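Exercise 3.2. Students should predict the tertiary structure of the chain below and write it as structure tokens, then compare their answer with the key that follows.

Predict this chain's 3D structure.
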Amino acid sequence: MAKPEEHPAPEPRTVTIIVNGRQKTVAKNDDLTFAEVIALAFENPPTGDGVQFTIQYTRGHGNKPAGSLIEGQSVKAKEGMEFDVTPTNRS
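Answer key:
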């Protein structure tokens, strides 16, 4: 009986995005959530009363090439997409 050929596991497809000026690699076709983008932007995100984040992105997919994310939202990652994540204090 012939032995079935072994196929190596396909390598996960990834894209490189820019978060606060630094390159990051993420899975292609994955939705990036608001919280995931913050985690990519800061190893230790600022915390405390009134700390919120503003996320702006550019170079997104054709149907929404630029915009902002708010808590609870996500956006599909695309090669070369850029994110600016800024902590803000609510006064």
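Discussion points: The chain has one domain: 14-89. The radius of gyration is 17 Å.
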